[in-house]
């Protein structure tokens, strides 16, 4: 099954449209998400949320900067908190999920001679599946507690626990060699898990190269994954 918009906000996800309009397509014992996993089974997935953290100030001419209050400078405190953040590592059913809290975008500035009165940083929190999106948002607020900022939630999606105790998933793990690790990233395993359907991430390609200039898929991994899936589906 192919669908669009998996990489953007969850409200636009094409699988959600299938779920709403053609739910019988999703009746299954096991869902296999063709994510890049280097030919290993990656279990569950992290949850994700994005917030925009805004600062305010007073606009002024930069030649008289003391008359203004620079909103961009105030982002330094936010970035300091992010730089000092220590990610939690959680072991769930033998899979280690490492969390991450990262600035992914900064916006601000009026003109080259103006002290800005508004600035914002977008922060992405990738959290272990033992947290709910609500708990994750509380944690984000705790990280930035005490700063003079406004925090706006713009997108969130729950993670998924490994779920490898389901027979169909356990059989695929065996067919793929028995090596399992946690999925770093959010995938539609979460949507299937919410429907009570066992789901795993399994496909060719190194996930450490995702969204880099060196992203590629080795032919030998495509061949190996194809052979495993053919063997699993024809037993």
From TrEMBL:
Residues 47-145 form the Peptidase M20 dimerisation domain. It holds the Pfam family M20_dimer. It is an enzyme of class 3 (hydrolase). Keywords: Amino-acid biosynthesis, Cobalt, Diaminopimelate biosynthesis, Hydrolase, Lysine biosynthesis, Metal-binding, Zinc. Signal peptide: none annotated. Pathway: Amino-acid biosynthesis; L-lysine biosynthesis via DAP pathway; LL-2,6-diaminopimelate from (S)-tetrahydrodipicolinate (succinylase route): step 3/3. It catalyses: N-succinyl-(2S,6S)-2,6-diaminopimelate + H2O = (2S,6S)-2,6-diaminopimelate + succinate. InterPro entries: Bact_exopeptidase_dim_dom, Peptidase_M20, Peptidase_M20_dimer, Peptidase_M20A, Succinyl-DAP_deSuclase_DapE. GO terms for biological process: diaminopimelate biosynthetic process; L-arginine biosynthetic process; lysine biosynthetic process via diaminopimelate. It comes from the Bacteria. Coiled coil: none annotated. Its cofactor is Co(2+); Zn(2+). Its EC number is 3.5.1.18. One of its GO terms (molecular function) is acetylornithine deacetylase activity. PANTHER family: ACETYLORNITHINE DEACETYLASE, N-ACETYL-L-CITRULLINE DEACETYLASE. Homodimer. This is Succinyl-diaminopimelate desuccinylase. It comes from Mycobacteroides abscessus subsp. bolletii 1513. The gene is dapE.
């Amino acid at each position: 099954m192919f669908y669009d918009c998996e990489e953007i906000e969850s409200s636009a996800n094409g699988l959600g449209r299938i779920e709403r309009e053609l739910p019988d397509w999703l009746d299954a014992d096991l869902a296999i998400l063709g994510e890049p996993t280097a030919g290993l089974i990656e279990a569950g997935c992290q949850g994700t949320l994005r917030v925009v953290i805004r600062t305010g100030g007073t606009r002024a001419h930069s030649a008289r900067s003391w008359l203004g209050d620079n909103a961009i400078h105030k982002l330094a405190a936010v970035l300091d908190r992010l730089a000092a953040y220590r990610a939690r590592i959680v072991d769930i059913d033998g899979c280690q999920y490492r969390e991450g809290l990262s600035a992914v975008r900064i916006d601000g500035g009026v003109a080259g001679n103006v002290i800005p009165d508004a600035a914002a940083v977008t922060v992405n929190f990738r959290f272990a599946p033992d947290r709910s999106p609500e708990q994750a948002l509380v944690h984000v607020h705790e990280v930035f507690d005490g700063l003079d900022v406004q925090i706006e939630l713009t997108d969130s999606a729950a993670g998924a626990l490994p779920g490898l105790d389901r027979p169909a998933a356990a059989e695929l793990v065996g067919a793929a060699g028995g090596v399992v690790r946690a999925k770093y990233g959010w995938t539609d395993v979460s949507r299937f898990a919410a429907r009570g359907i066992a789901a795993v991430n399994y496909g060719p390609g190194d996930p450490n190269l995702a969204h880099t200039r060196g992203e590629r898929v080795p032919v030998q991994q495509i061949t190996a994954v194809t052979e495993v899936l053919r063997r699993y589906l024809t037993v």
